[in-house]
């Protein structure tokens, strides 16, 4: 079957502070790919980095890139034999992960660590992998996770960041009855707090230097939220070797990363999911003598489907994190607001 080509409006990052809405041609294989009309997308930290700096970590814009990896839409066209129960008109959340499914890591079930991962909206490889801030996308059937028509799109867009939070909690192990600290109360940190609460944690405490973020953390289920600069408030966490059974570091700030060792109890766990400075100082001696387990958490595996099911059923409400929504034509204004942490947590684009 021959490739099909359609015109497509897209939000395209050309360089730092240069994002344009422009017409592109989308070519896809109707024999193997699902055509989805995108309804809504959420702006993530990597989208902001491409806009603000022309790069996200080591992923540098070498040519124009369609932004966006948090998005949902409606199925418009399906392959004749898609192997899944998909139909035209179905609402779907798109899993942006495209692992190779052939390397050792993939075959071991560690697909999130695939070295050849083609993650949508990423400039890691050249050519880049375009994202979902456009009229339509063509994806694998297995990337389409269907949800009920009654579910609200502005809720379902949170599937990708919720999957990140679910994977972090999976990395921590059993949280039942545990005392949990989350450093950094941005969208991911707040979602980790909500998941930790649902996982049975006996106490969930968050930190953030921003008063607005602290208020959001409480709205998302934290028992208490503290300004980490308040020494009187945090001093008690260091007594007797540390207070928390599990600490999730979601800020990426060097000072916050170093503090996790002091705050975590002997034999406790630290899960690092915040990305910030490439190198930080860590009190290694304290980590060793307290036998703390330090693990990383990167993206997600099957947690994406779990996230869709939780949001679809209303098990978790992410809407306190939704600060604003913009039409796609106002992508620059949306990115500017999303980059102002004093005013916004999660900003969404209405694309269809």
UniProtKB/TrEMBL annotation:
The protein's required cofactors: Zn(2+)
Pfam family, one: ADH_N
One GO MF term attached to the UniProt entry: oxidoreductase activity
Domain Alcohol dehydrogenase-like N-terminal: 31-146
Residue ranges of every copy of the Alcohol dehydrogenase-like C-terminal domain listed in the record: 187-312
InterPro entries: ADH-like_C, ADH-like_N, GroES-like_sf, NAD(P)-bd_dom_sf
Keyword Nucleotide-binding on entry: no
Keywords from the UniProt entry: Metal-binding, Oxidoreductase, Zinc
Family label: Belongs to the zinc-containing alcohol dehydrogenase family.
Protein name, as recorded: L-idonate 5-dehydrogenase
Organism: Pseudomonas oryzihabitans
């Amino acid at each position: 079957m021959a490739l099909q080509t359609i015109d497509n409006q897209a939000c395209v990052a050309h360089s730092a502070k240069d994002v344009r809405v422009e017409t592109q041609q989308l070519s896809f294989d109707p024999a193997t790919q699902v055509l989805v009309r995108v309804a809504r997308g959420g702006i993530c930290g990597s989208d902001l980095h491409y806009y603000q700096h022309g790069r996200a970590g080591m992923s540098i814009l070498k040519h124009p890139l369609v932004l966006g990896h948090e998005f949902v839409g409606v199925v418009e066209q399906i392959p004749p034999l898609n192997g899944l129960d998909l139909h035209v008109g179905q609402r779907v959340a798109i899993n942006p992960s495209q692992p190779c499914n052939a390397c050792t890591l993939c075959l071991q079930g560690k697909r999130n660590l695939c070295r050849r991962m083609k993650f949508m909206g990423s400039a890691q490889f050249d050519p880049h992998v375009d994202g979902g801030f456009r009229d339509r996308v063509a994806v694998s059937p297995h990337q389409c996770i269907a949800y009920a028509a009654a579910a609200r799109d502005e809720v379902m867009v949170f599937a990708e960041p919720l999957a990140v939070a679910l994977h972090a909690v999976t990395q921590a192990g059993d949280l039942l009855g545990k005392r949990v600290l989350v450093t950094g109360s941005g969208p991911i940190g707040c979602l980790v707090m909500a998941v930790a609460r649902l996982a049975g944690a006996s106490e969930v405490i968050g930190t953030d230097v921003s008063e607005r973020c602290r208020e959001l953390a409480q709205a998302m289920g934290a028992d208490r939220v503290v300004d980490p600069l308040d020494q009187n408030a945090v001093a008690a966490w260091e007594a007797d070797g540390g207070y928390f059974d599990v600490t999730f570091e979601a800020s990426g700030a060097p000072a916050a990363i170093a503090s996790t060792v002091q705050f975590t109890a002997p034999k406790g766990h630290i899960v690092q999911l915040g990305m910030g400075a490439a190198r930080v100082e860590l009190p290694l001696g304290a980590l060793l003598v307290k036998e703390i387990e330090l693990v990383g958490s990167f993206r997600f595996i099957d947690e994406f489907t779990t996230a869709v099911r939780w949001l679809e059923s209303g098990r978790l409400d992410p809407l306190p994190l939704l600060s604003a929504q913009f039409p796609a034509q106002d992508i620059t204004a949306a990115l500017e607001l999303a980059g102002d942490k004093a005013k916004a947590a999660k900003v969404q684009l209405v694309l269809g």
